[in-house]
Design a protein that fits this description.
The protein is an alpha/beta fold. It contains twelve helices and eight strands.
């Protein structure tokens, strides 16, 4: 494909999105501020591709092609220069995202599609300093991006119809199932996911049932592929807490985080990434 894709942030979501872009034939530039983080991201791509080959989901030829399409850099200007698509997956901080996109806009082509992978922050707010907010949109991928199909395309008041269509078309070309969501706190997925997750944590707090049985209720009774507490462990309890606090400020007390969630985060029990959350991991 002719248009390079720049992915900003080499963490879990960033390197996962970069993998999707590279697998789909784009020259993909993965950017991070530090060499160490960048190396971990590139290794994450390699590891995911290796597992894909082992499981028969990815061919050896696809693996080689994806790796040949992947470039790593710690220079933001070189990452976005000439890129037709820029997808940001850096920490959930409005000012950090605003500053990053301000630099992106100075160096990326005028018509580039600019997208944020934010799961809950306002698209309108992030785009406030931009000269071309009509080309800015949310593209919220799900973890892991190379396995899960959903992409939330979130449009702000200044996002043009053409930009939404471009983002939808890009997601579909990558084999994803995009949905359109207006820029409201929590969008669709985070709002519903946090509501379910927060209530499940309250049930543990109130000793209604064990985490295993609460998850089983949703997996077996409602056909959810993963229970809300397992999902909280996968996403990260700290991430869930941040989003819940944001939604509580924006939408009211029904999203107020349970005390148990606050205590677990303060104790460093963040889920799978730390080895302990509602479950214990090797």
């Amino acid at each position: 494909m002719s248009e390079p894709v720049a992915v900003l942030g080499a963490g879990t979501m960033g390197h996962g999105i970069a993998l999707v872009a590279a697998l789909n034939g784009h020259v993909t530039r993965l950017y991070d501020v530090s060499e160490d983080a960048l190396e971990k991201g590139v290794q994450g791509v390699r590891s995911a591709l290796d597992k894909g080959v082992e499981r028969g989901k990815t061919s050896e030829e696809e693996r080689k092609r994806a790796l040949s399409n992947l470039e790593g850099t710690v220079d933001l200007e070189s990452a976005v220069t000439g890129a037709g698509v820029v997808i940001e997956a850096i920490p959930e901080d409005v000012e950090l995202k605003q500053d990053t996109f301000g630099q992106v806009e100075k160096n990326a082509p005028t018509g580039a599609l600019l997208a944020s992978n934010t799961s809950s922050l306002s698209i309108e707010k992030i785009a406030e300093p931009l000269d071309r907010p009509e080309r800015f949109v949310g593209m919220h991928f799900f973890n892991p991006p190379y396995i899960l199909d959903l992409v939330e395309v979130v449009y702000g008041p200044d996002t043009s119809k053409e930009t939404v269509e471009d983002a939808m078309a890009l997601a579909r070309s990558w084999g994803k199932e995009p949905i359109q969501v207006r820029d409201v706190p929590g969008f669709a997925s985070s709002r519903l996911g946090i509501a379910l997750g927060v209530e499940a944590i309250r049930m543990v707090e109130e000793d209604v049932a064990s985490p295993e049985d609460i998850d089983a209720a949703m997996e077996l009774g409602y056909n959810h592929p993963m229970g809300p507490l397992k999902l909280t462990d996968l996403v990260g309890l700290d991430v869930r807490l941040d989003i819940a606090e944001h939604l509580a400020r924006e939408l009211g007390a029904r999203f107020e985080p349970p005390q148990l969630l606050r205590e677990m985060v303060s104790e460093g029990k963040l889920g799978k990434k730390t080895g302990e959350g509602f479950y214990t991991y090797d």
